[in-house]
Specification:
Domain Zinc finger CGNR: 140-181
CATH architecture of the domain at 14-137: Orthogonal Bundle
Helix content: 40-55%
Distance between the termini: 45 Å
Order of helices and strands: HEEHHHEEHEEH
CATH class of the domain at 14-137: Mainly Alpha
Organism: Amycolatopsis silviterrae
Bound molecules: zinc ion
Shape: globular
Protein name: CGNR zinc finger domain-containing protein
Number of helices: 6
Number of strands: 6
Oligomer: single chain
């Protein structure tokens, strides 16, 4: 990650990387895009660079984020999709103008409209959410096993048994907690 962009949990799936801009949802939530500039930063490291962001656009982004979180959680728990979340995801998806293009190296890149607006970037994120919630993409929606997190993540592991949204944070903390519990047990024996 480039210097100057700490604190973002960037996974390989765009939509759930985006929902991970609010972490510890079931504990003490940490807002990682508290200002328009932070959203600009996140979009830049996510391949969706925009020129500017207004507070209203940040609100739009956060609304989409929570809609994706709600839809992804419903999918992971095999519940019906909340209609309001579906509407927000669809509204954002159709609103932006972005195009997928190939780089010379054969990688996919997102090209936003010449105005490169936040709406364009959000449409890419919304479309990504559609692809994982709809089951179009190979993987499984699951909830993080950390009780203070429970973030929805997209498990693309071969065995589909991934337990944590992020190995470096939630996964590590759980492992450490288990290690400490075992140490205490040993000392008590
Ligand atoms: Zn987690």
């Amino acid at each position: 990650m480039p210097a100057g962009f700490p604190d973002f949990r960037l996974g390989s799936v765009l939509a759930t990387s985006f929902t991970a801009t609010l972490t510890e949802r079931r504990g003490d939530p940490v807002e990682r895009i508290p200002t328009p500039q932070r959203l600009i930063d996140w979009l830049a490291v996510s391949g969706l660079a925009v020129d500017s962001c207004t507070p209203a656009q940040l609100d739009l982004a956060r609304e989409l984020r929570e809609a994706i979180h709600a839809a992804a959680t419903a999918t992971a728990t095999q519940n019906a999709l909340p209609a309001s979340a579906v509407k927000i995801i669809n509204d954002r998806s159709v609103e932006g103008r972005a195009a997928a293009v190939l780089t010379a190296e054969g990688k996919r890149q997102w090209q936003l409209s010449p105005a490169a607006s936040v709406e364009d970037a959000l449409s890419v994120i919304a479309a990504d959410a559609v692809s994982i919630v709809s089951g179009e993409r190979d993987g499984r929606m699951a909830l993080c096993a950390s009780p203070t997190c429970q973030a929805a993540f997209f498990d693309t592991s071969q065995s589909r048994t991934r337990r944590w949204c992020d190995m470096n944070t939630c996964g590590n903390r759980q492992k450490k907690a288990r290690f400490n519990a075992n140490q205490r047990k040993k000392l008590a024996q």
